């Protein structure tokens, strides 16, 4: 299952956004209002929970300076990645788009597609808070 957020333009440099996204404690600023838990496990891992949803642990998997940050599920039960793609528009403006890729059975995909789509859209629209 592949989902993508709308592309958002942020009035920050790609270098600034890359540094902010590789510091995982900053993901708390991007979370939706209905967050029930956010806990930093270490510099590469955090766990969060939204009301009515199971808690999810994310680990930083890959970071390509100033262009891409990839987070993945810490558990192999529900394998997925969340990729932030950064595209420089100017020295002080960057386009950001989030991509979700998950390997779910069709029933699970049908159940989670809506909530995950809304979740990554919220993360993207909150990028200006970094």
UniProtKB/TrEMBL annotation:
Q: Which domain of life is it from?
A: Bacteria
Entry protein name: Orotate phosphoribosyltransferase
Q: Which organism is it from?
A: Flavobacterium indicum (strain DSM 17447 / CIP 109464 / GPTSA100-9)
Taxonomy of the source species: Bacteria, Pseudomonadati, Bacteroidota, Flavobacteriia, Flavobacteriales
